[in-house]
Write a structure and sequence with these properties.
Number of helices: 14
CATH topology of the largest domain: TIM Barrel
Largest sheet: 8 strands, parallel, barrel
Shape: globular
CATH class of the largest domain: Alpha Beta
Number of strands: 14
Protein name: NtaA/DmoA family FMN-dependent monooxygenase
CATH architecture of the largest domain: Alpha-Beta Barrel
Strand content: 5-15%
Structural class: alpha/beta
Oligomer: single chain
Organism: Streptosporangium jomthongense
Keywords: Flavoprotein, FMN, Monooxygenase, Oxidoreductase
InterPro entries: Diverse_substr_monoxygenases (IPR051260), Luciferase-like_dom (IPR011251), Luciferase-like_sf (IPR036661), NTA_MOA (IPR016215)
Radius of gyration: 23 Å
EC number: 1.14.-.-
Distance between the termini: 21 Å
CATH superfamily of the largest domain: Luciferase-like domain
Length: about 450
């Protein structure tokens, strides 16, 4: 049987996180990161995952409460966690649009050394000029160029990591100089980067820290198939997961790689209960916490592209149509839909059919817990996805910080271990080793 890969996503700033719950803690205090990471390691997870954001997002020119908790620097947090964990992989989201290859290659190689081979990089891109205003060169890239720059960025970073070999670390005892005159030497002359010199971090324990890519678009899938070790996706049903899995694995083979060289890891949520019925009640309660009246209006505005602050969250949808424009009411966010008029028509039909007000409609259409049930039911669901090739594993996104993973580790993990699909002890030392990827030890 296939082994289930598990990663823990620190909840952070998103619509899944509930900070109104009395059990919710700090999103920025280091103890919160430590608690979640140690819980994941106790559950023998493969890695810990941090998202990122480069600017406070705005709606109607104002900051919404979902964003005020802030986004600490991922690599700084992960370096701290390297000192308080022993086996858990450490993955950070770093933007390839707003960074430079030499600087990032150095930081990731350093994290790999500090952690003994547990570093990973989630590559993301941006064509968002609003976010780019935070950066000295504007940070703006045309949408058509962002993946091209990212592809060259990844290639350049790997050239830097490969600039050291094992032989380069051996010094001549007579002279004290390294025996190789080429240690760390690199030269890259491309469309986006023109750099040369000597890389000053010796080869990392993993050689190449793990590369993850998040994106469901055709461009994103092709980028992952060519460059990534894992792809972070979102698919709510078994059949959708199978279709995505087949498509991505075929692209990997077309790029001359083994299908096992890319791991498919959907991001998922969960709700547990002593029984399936109780779990469903818990899931419904969580969704109402996640979609407050204010959040319901905020999400509706992102589709309508209008100020809807005067509307009753418990009342009907606006009779006016969405405003279709390149200028959006929301800045720094990914658009909820590419066709707002079609979406509005579909939502109106659903609201009429089920007699839903704005808040209940938003709860209905913007997502739900991926796995809902007793620990036995959730363990069965997770294992079925993996064994039927709808995924290689999952990145779990709890709704509470920092204790949201505790119940899963205490109640679901032992059942997966009993099935023989999740390790009971770590048998490898690097993240590549955990995932069975080339170069792992």
């Amino acid at each position: 049987m296939k082994q289930v890969i598990l990663a823990a996503h620190f909840p952070g700033v998103n619509n899944q996180t509930v900070w109104s719950d009395p059990a919710a803690g700090s999103q920025i205090d280091f103890s919160s990161f430590v608690h979640l990471a140690r819980t994941a390691e106790r559950g023998r997870f493969d890695f810990f995952f941090l998202a990122d954001g480069q600017r406070l997002r705005e709606q109607r020119g104002r900051i919404h409460d979902l964003d005020v908790v802030g986004r600490p620097d991922s690599l700084t947090v992960l370096a701290g966690l390297a000192a308080v964990t022993d086996h858990l992989g450490l993955a950070g989201t770093i933007n390839a649009t707003f960074n430079e290859p030499y600087e990032l290659a150095r930081k990731l190689a350093t994290l790999d050394h500090l952690s003994g081979g547990r570093a990973a990089w989630n590559v993301v891109t941006s064509s968002d000029a609003f976010t780019g205003e935070n950066f000295r060169r504007g940070g703006y890239l045309d949408h058509s160029e962002r993946y091209a720059r990212a592809a060259e960025f990844v290639r350049t970073v790997r050239e830097l990591w490969d600039s050291w070999t094992a032989e380069d670390l051996v010094a001549d005892p007579a002279t004290g100089f390294f025996s190789s005159a080429n240690a760390g030497e690199f030269a890259h002359h491309g469309e986006f980067f023109d750099i040369e010199g000597r890389f000053n971090v010796p080869r990392a324990p993993q050689g190449h820290p793990l590369t993850i890519q998040a994106g469901d678009s055709g461009e994103g899938r092709e980028f992952a198939a060519a460059h990534a070790d894992a792809i972070f996706s979102r698919h709510g049903t078994l059949e959708d997961g199978k279709a995505f899995y087949r498509d991505v694995k075929a692209r990997v083979v077309a790029n001359g790689r083994s299908p096992d060289s890319l791991k498919v890891l959907p991001g998922v949520t969960f709700a547990l209960g002593d029984t399936d019925a109780e779990a469903q009640e818990n899931a419904d309660h969580i969704r109402r916490q996640q979609v407050s009246p204010q959040t319901a209006i905020l999400l509706l505005e992102q589709v309508w592209n209008r100020d809807l602050s005067s509307y009753d969250p418990e009342g009907p949808l606006p009779e006016i149509d969405p405003l279709v424009s390149e200028e959006t009411i929301s800045r720094g966010r990914t658009r909820l839909t590419r066709d707002p008029l079609e979406t509005a028509a579909r939502w109106r039909a659903l609201a009429e059919e089920k007699r839903l007000g704005i808040r209940d409609l938003i709860i209905e259409v913007t997502g739900r817990q991926s796995f809902i049930g007793s620990p036995a039911t959730v363990a069965e669901q997770i294992n079925a996805f993996v064994q039927q090739d709808a995924a290689d594993g999952f990145i779990l996104v709890p709704h509470l910080t920092p204790t949201g993973l505790d119940g899963f580790v205490d109640e679901v993990v032992p059942l997966l271990q009993e099935r023989g699909v999740l390790r009971t002890e770590y048998g490898t030392t690097t993240l590549r080793g955990h995932l069975g990827l080339e170069g792992g030890a």
